[in-house]
Amino acid sequence: MLPTTASKGRGAARSSPPIFGPYLRRIVKWQQMDIEYTFWQMVHLCTSPKVVYASCTHPVLNYSYQHTKYHKQTKNQWARDDPAFIVILILFLVFATSAYCAAYGESASHAAVTITSVVLIHFLFAGIVLATLCWFLTNSYLREEPNSHVVEQRVEWLYAFDVHCNSFFPAFVILYVLQYFLSPLLVAHGFFPALLSNLLFVVAISYYHYLNFLGYDVLPFLDRTTFFLYPIGLVIILSPLMILIGFNPTRYFLSLYFG
């Protein structure tokens, strides 16, 4: 008996090419990374995030494509196969954390521990946990049921991690870069420093979840992706309470690392 179309779809979904090996090997090969396109993405994630997922033009090679669907159509995967974004983001984290250590740290050994914890725990470990959670939720609860004539598709774990990295970058700009320059004001006592600090965190966290929504909303086989916008409502509800009780997140996190 010939296999049905649906069974073919399931087989195709399971037989997607392995990408972790080549992906990891390219981390140490700068000449194979598209650095210009990575910076283009980073700029537009902060200014016009929909452009990153919508139809756009490669800034260097000058051809048009739809960022996410381009990978699926040409390489049979939704995720990036270029680790340049993660490598550059980690370097930015190292530089930014080093600046905090120079301003507020006590010793070189303390700085080394702080930088390592930020990269390994705050970014990589937290990112792996969040990406795994989103990967599980999307594949378990948000996928549309395919009919017998449509190939079954699933969210790749590496794509979920890509979405996290994209969403993390603007939050990094706000909470690592902008907050650093405003920190002399933010660490002061009083209502206004607490208000400004809370506003920075509200914007950063809300923008993170909005970009998370954009990353999954572009996938044609997912439904009810507005689920990823719900945490924004919770942040907006809780932020006035944090301001009223005088909680200053900047002071809290600086004291956590440098207190």
Report on this model:
The structure is a single chain. With 259 residues, this protein is mainly α. The chain has helices spanning 5-14, 20-25, 35-47, 49-53, 67-75, 84-104, 108-142, 157-186, 191-217, 230-244, 249-258, and strands spanning 55-57, 64-66. The protein contains eleven helices and two strands. It is globular. Strands 1-2 form a two-stranded antiparallel ribbon. Residues 1-17 and 55-66 have low confidence and may be disordered. The termini are far apart. It has a domain at 82-145 and 153-258. Its main location: membrane. Pfam families: UNC-50. InterPro entries: UNC-50. It comes from Eragrostis curvula. It is a multi-pass membrane protein.
Primary descriptors:
disordered N terminus; transmembrane helix; UNC-50 family protein; mainly alpha; 259 residues; membrane; 11 helices; transmembrane; two-stranded antiparallel ribbon; single chain; UNC-50
Report the structural category: mainly alpha
Strand order of the largest sheet: 1-2
Which percent range describes the beta-strand content? under 5%
User: Largest beta sheet, briefly?
Assistant: 2 strands, antiparallel
Approximately how much helix is present in the residues? 55-70%
N/C terminus separation: 70 Å
Mean pLDDT: 84
List the SSEs and their pairings.
Blueprint: H1 5-14, H2 20-25, H3 35-47, H4 49-53, E1 55-57, E2 64-66, H5 67-75, H6 84-104, H7 108-142, H8 157-186, H9 191-217, H10 230-244, H11 249-258
Antiparallel strand pairs: 1-2
What would you say about this model in short?
Helices cover 70% and strands 2% of the residues. The chain has 259 residues and is mainly alpha-helical.
